[in-house]
Amino acid sequence: MTDVTPTPGIHHVTCVAGDPQRNVEFWVETLGLRLVKRSINQDDPSTYHFFFADAEGTPGTSMTFFPWEEMSRGKVGSGQVSRTAFRVPEGSLDYWEERFDEYGVDYDERVERFSETVLPFRDPDGLPVELVAVPIADDDPTVPWTEFVPEEAAIRGFHSVTLWLANPDATMDLLRTMGFEEAGTEQSPGDTPGDERTRFSAAGPVGRYVDVLPTVGAGRQGHGTVHHVAFQTPTDDDQAAMREAVRAAGLEPTRQIDRHWFRSVYFREHNGVLFELATRDPGYDSDEPLSELGGRLVLPGEFEARRGEIEADLPDVTVPRAERAEADD
User: Fold this and answer.
1) Which residues fall within 8 angstroms of residue 286, CB to CB, at 6 or more apart?
2) Is the pTM of this model over 0.90?
């Protein structure tokens, strides 16, 4: 088998939302992430695709959404990414609880997991999300966006995803093939008694963890669920080798697909979770200046020729700005 370069970790996570305006307001203003790309679902151009990330759209920081308004509320269950966790600086969880109280965010009591403090909450569509307080190194690759949230509390990319799986063993073997190493097992607070959470760790500084939990309850895709999780395969050669390793594991990866800001390969792992492999280049600033990311609707490739038709089908969306919010106070 071709030598596989281990994945550094998560590249992005893509979820299903409902109302697009509500989605933008929550992830930009309440959580303080930057809208780095305003585009369309390339498989369904009648729907937006929003990308929220750090100030520069660094790999490992972007939470993306398809706001399919016509869909119903989903149900988190087996065969899904059940939780998406972000890193925040140590000492910032008091700030976040106060902010959640101010903005009416539904959150739970903090829990300790693998010696880290976790603050679980839900977005307006019911999507389960977590903030994990961690030390942020001076050379951390993420760049905090501080229009709404101060640097000392700003979200600094992904911490982890949790997979709920009916038969975890084959998926755990796949994670090892992708370069993750088993980092520990514990009975975590909030998890079903008797079900142990197994943590896998990649080598990168951001989005390095995948937690696996045995779960048999069926899920249903809809608002408030994760559509897929993407892992970094930085170069085309890295991706090709990983794709071959996935095929050798008995799975059926797609051909490489150009997604304009990265190149992607998709496959469903053994329990049905949709995985993506994504390259680092060309990046979100390949078609917009860094200072203008997310300022306009970007239509990749052949979709630009259909701009009039596409814009007519999309609802208007206003992106929150700090100066606008202050003027309204």
Assistant:
1) 260, 261
2) yes
223-242 burial string, b = 16+ CB within 10 Å, else e? Answer: bbbbbbbbbbbbeeebbbbb
pLDDT tens per residue, range 27-63: 999 999 999 999 999 989 999 999 999 999 999 999 9
Using CA atoms, how far apart are residues 201 and 37, in angstroms rounded to an integer? 29
Distance CA 107, CA 125 (A): 13
Mean pLDDT of 100-128: 97
What's the distance, CA 221 to chain centroid?
16
Cα angle 287, 258, 232 (rounded to 5 degrees) comes to 90
The full set of domains in the chain, from first to last, is 10-328 (3.10.180.10)
Give 140's Cβ-side CA count (13 Å radius). Answer: 21
Residue 2 has pLDDT above 70, yes or no: no
